[in-house]
Amino acid sequence: MKIFGMHYRFVFGAVCCALVLSACATKSTLEGPKNDGLSGTENMDKQKRASIRMQLAIDYYQQGQQKVALEEIKQALISSPDLVDAYNVRGLIFMDMGEKNLAEDNFLYALKLAPNNSDVAQNYGWFLCQNGREKQAMAYFEQVLKDPKYTGVGKTLNTAGICSIKMKDDAAAERYFMQAFRADPSNPSVNINLSKMLFERGDYEKAHFYIERMVKAEQLTPETLWLAIKIENKRGDQLSVSSLGTQLRRRYPNSKEYDLLQRGAFNE
Question: Whole-angstrom Cα distance, residue 135 to residue 107?
């Protein structure tokens, strides 16, 4: 399962919601699997039900319906108490909700069940990075990067770069971002992170190279457009500033970025 609950922009915030759960992460759900004496067929049926519940949970989570997702995970664990993916996804949901202790409990239990699961290690590393435990996070990222079977290398390199920035290690951040770009050159967050780092360094031509890739690919959030505008302004390309500004006005007229553009606040 390749779920990663986070939003990149050189920004480290998670979505927070006030949500009270009904014993979804109590001691009973954090206990290990039990031998229930079921036949092979019955066990297969339970695993199938758990899988269906997990897919529903993922769908609801991606739609922002956290309460419903948690209920589906609870039902999945009734069928399969040792389902690693259930604890992993529930950790992500609790992380988004700001329930740090519950999130960590679920990630750690998932790792107890599957110590070498790189998806869990990746997500737990991101949790640690967002909660001021960057050095611990880096150890998990490095563990993931040593897994030859892991397919999300670009994602992990990118998160390691973000975490390095939090540690004020710009050299390491740039190294991770460049490795991430080589591993996954079409990843929007990698291109944007590289562009922002280079822009802040004053290397506007290189910053332009990476942000232009996102403009051409139509990966245009308000933040991406505003970064592109600031880069083109520094490069002295007022025609591009005007063109990108028109897109920002048309797409996101109520955004704070468009307000900054109207005020000419390129340095804020």
Answer: 17
